[in-house]
Amino acid sequence: MAYDPNSQNKPIILPNYMCISQTHSLDDLTSKVFPYQDLARAINNPSFFFSSAILTTRNNIVDKLNQKVPNLLPGEEITLHSANTADTSNQED
Fold it and tell me: What domain of life does the native source organism fall in (predicted)?
């Protein structure tokens, strides 16, 4: 959906194909949006995540989802480190 300033503070109506019937737990919701068999294939196809999303209005739910969904992915967890600036010196440590 594109941003429309005329829609500010108005209800957002999603098309039916974007909606999931009521669920009673985060486990139910995540299993419908990210079925395990699809997650198993997503490891080789990162674009899978471009077509699925869970929208929520509460940050505490976002935090729970951010903890839960990565744990559903198969395989070992790895940590990648990043830096805000590049080391342009010629020194080796």
Answer: Eukaryota
